[in-house]
Design brief:
The chain is mostly helical and 87 residues long. It has five helices and no strands. The longest helix is centred in the first third of the chain and has 34 residues.
Length: 87
């Protein structure tokens, strides 16, 4: 692999790490707000009509959530979307 490709590869890995960290922040925000509102995960994923395991991955920051699903989660938690995505 030449120098330029190695540099691109390193840069790609760096933004992938940043994205994974951002997904984790979103999950942590959902958990924090859920606790503040005294809601359970079950109540939320049932209202959203999504699979329990999918919801758990969202909270764990292990899945890339669509903007539309994030908006539904924000509505369910009675917060603005930016409250879920801000670090």
């Amino acid at each position: 692999m030449d120098k330029k490709k190695k540099q691109i590869n390193r840069e790609t890995k760096e933004w992938e790490k940043e994205e994974l960290a951002y997904l984790k922040v979103i999950g942590e925000n959902i958990i924090r707000i859920k606790k503040e509102k005294k809601l359970t995960s079950k109540e939320i994923y049932e209202i959203l009509d999504i699979d329990k395991s999918n919801y758990r991955r969202i909270e764990a920051g292990k899945t890339n959530v669509s903007v539309l699903l994030l908006k539904r989660i924000a509505n369910t938690l009675s917060v603005k979307l930016n409250e879920l995505v801000e670090s």
